[in-house]
Amino acid sequence: MAQHPGVGPASSAWSHRFAEELPELVTPWQADVPTEPRPVTLNHELASEVGIAPSTLQDPEGLRDLLRGDGSAVAMAYAGHQFGNYSPLLGDGRALLLGEATDKRLDIHLKGSGATPFARAGDGKAALGPMLREYVVAEAMHALGLPTTRSLAVISTGDTVRREGAKPGAILVRVAASHLRVGTFELAARASDPDVLQRLADHAISRHYPEVADSDNPYLGLLDAVVAAQADLIAQWMSVGFIHGVMNTDNMTISGQTIDYGPCAFLDEFTPGAVFSSIDHGGRYAYANQPGVGLWNLSRFAETVLRLLSSDPDEGVALATASVTKYEAIYQAAWRARMLAKLGLPDTTADSTLVEQLLELLDRHGADYTSTFGELATWLERPSAHTESALWTAPEWTAWLDRWRDAMNVAGLEGPTVASRMRQVNPTRIPRNHLLEEALDAAETGDLEPVHELIDAVTDPYGMRPHPERYAAAPPPGFTASHQTFCGT
Ligand code: AMP
Ligand code: MG
Questions:
Q1: What is the mean pLDDT of residues 24-38?
Q2: Could you give the CA distance from residue 2 to residue 142 in angstroms, rounded to a whole number?
Q3: Which ligand is nearest to the CA of 90?
Q4: Ligand 1: which of 29, 83, 94 to mutate, judged by most atoms within 8 Å of the beta carbon?
Q5: Using a 6 Å CB cutoff, which residues line ligand 1?
Q6: pTM of the full structure
Q7: What is the DSSP letter of 485?
Q8: Is residue 168 classed as helix, strand or coil in its secondary structure?
Q9: What distance lies between CA 271 and its chain's CA centroid?
Q10: What is the pLDDT of residues 430-449, one digit of tens each?
């Protein structure tokens, strides 16, 4: 392997435990290393965290070394239900696992690094726009405090890829707790060697849920833990108005991190049925459907571990059913607590329909989801300051504000206290669709200033630093109705 100060020692400190423990689920492969790679965005802090000296990523030689890794990269195999239909073999068609940064056991992964044996008809490449989109949204989610894979770098390859015209090519370097997916279990459960599934489950337990290893039934502990992690994750998505867009089982992690930012979007106007993805014709992955899809995906996961739960098939089904049935209550409790916190209220608040009624009013009056919480905090601070929007001038809104005031009184909280609690949990800067579109369009023409400015704004979601006002503003009228997002494949 080529020597380069910083990168050599970092990659030589990687381990390859997934590939060693589950050789049936990987294919050794190498990245197509571009001759003139250039850094487009670099996450210095994250690079240092995984033991890569950020300075080495500034020049082509260091980038090439990173992409080569230590020569032990693999493409991971997985299956998955896509829009409800089972695909027996998907796998990393254009991605590679370089290794695991040893002390933290974080995957270092490439996306857009060339066709692998799993590529089928795909070119194995990625365009700059979608890779920057994933970089920005994942880092925004992290800054919001949500479990997510992270973005280390977007590297331009200097090549051109064909996607409705010629686009600049790029590689995303991603860091994740792991790349174990529900789809990985779906593949392992159908492997001819029954041992693969058990080894995979043991690997997942040791990596993500070591606390269940010594329980009476560790595999039931694993299922319970994944159900709880996903219920909590999806509750968090809902509370920030995030739409994943392509919740196929191969895009759902065992760790509970959000993964694979493709046609994702944040709500502007609150619309429960919102769908932005150009390929989601039936609205399967609409905003309000996400909790239900999460349960559907977890049921597919539960099916894969049935025979590990018990040697008695009936008992296995009973245990799995009981585990998955807990999802609803965990989701509801997590969602309610987060939504009440957005209103500055404790999760003991007795008014059980206050949140639902708020959302119904936002929907009815086309109010912007994120901005409304800021306006509510401002109203508590300065009751005369409210806007003249349809929501704020609606008669039923005054009645809702009274109910909210009552809930504050019951909790013994004064308006200014509630307002300051709200400011701590309600973001003002999220990667809104119009901001992303504008920044990514500029990046494609070679102007990187807007995307860097956007990253700076959305990684400071609660507005601790000054940013141009437009990063906190709703889109221009008419934008949302016509907006579509794309998978970026
Ligand atoms: P995704 O929709 O990004 O989760 O990808 C679904 C499947 O398609 C995965 O197996 C990917 O590796 C594969 N895939 C997506 N884009 C490409 C591409 N450009 N070349 C090869 N495989 C791809
Ligand atoms: Mg995927």
A1: 97
A2: 33
A3: 1
A4: 94
A5: 90-95, 115, 118-119, 122-125, 246, 250-251, 260, 262, 487, 489
A6: 0.97
A7: B
A8: strand
A9: 20
A10: 999 999 999 999 999 999 99
